[in-house]
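hey so i finally got around to running the thing on that chain from the lab meeting. sorry it took forever, my laptop kept dying and i had to restart like 3 times. anyway pasting the input first so we r on the same page abt which one it is
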Amino acid sequence: MSADPASPERILAPAVARASAVLDLLARSGRPATLAELARALQLPKSSLHGLCATLEHLNLITRLDGGQMTLGPHVMMWANAFMARLDITQEFFASWDDMRVLPEETITLSVRDGAEVVYIACRNGQHPLGLRFHAGMRLPAVYTATGLAMLSTLPDASVRKLLDGLPGGWPVPLTDHGLRDTAAVIDELRRIRQRRYSTDREWVREGMYCYGAPVFDSHHPEAVAGVAVSIRSLEANPALEERAGQAIRKLADRLSERLGAWRRP
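ok and heres what got predicted. didnt touch it at all, straight out
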């Protein structure tokens, strides 16, 4: 029987394997890490890890924060976008929404989570003005966005607490006078999201704008790999429309999850 291709003896470039391990660890942890934390977790000497991280930083694969902690860098997004493009997920995102014929004139967005922020990778701004135009590459605090909260709802509460309580810059600066103001409020909101199966942003990103989001899964991870949302003007919101928007975005998320090979979620 031949050896497993992923087994250690088949790794011909150990430095590449170590670099991959660093990126994997930063991606899984969902928070910045110091060199010492990486060394302990990966059981590597700090001396060799220092040079490896410096190279990854030079290549924009990791970003070093002011306090010396490291997180995933912007170049990773290029790979993520290439992966999403290969699956035509962004095109399917738009096509599936159009096919559903629910709230066709409203703004829709597709985003991924980078730690405590969301990064928008596909957006179609609707015909109804919201006072805000989304665009690919735009970043916002996850705790204020429908897609961010939808993705956070797929993490254990302990992981959410660790992520939010460990933010180096403290709690994200509020975008409006509304929104969640501490970790306890987020945990409570995430429990409500899990029950109704879609998230809400009630003027937390922009005055006069409500958003409804849902998480997207793939076949490999228990946590969401992306989030989708639809935005409407708050003056048009009513219980019936909110339920319609929430169920529609949930249906869209399920379609994209199936496209990525995920089992149907309860």
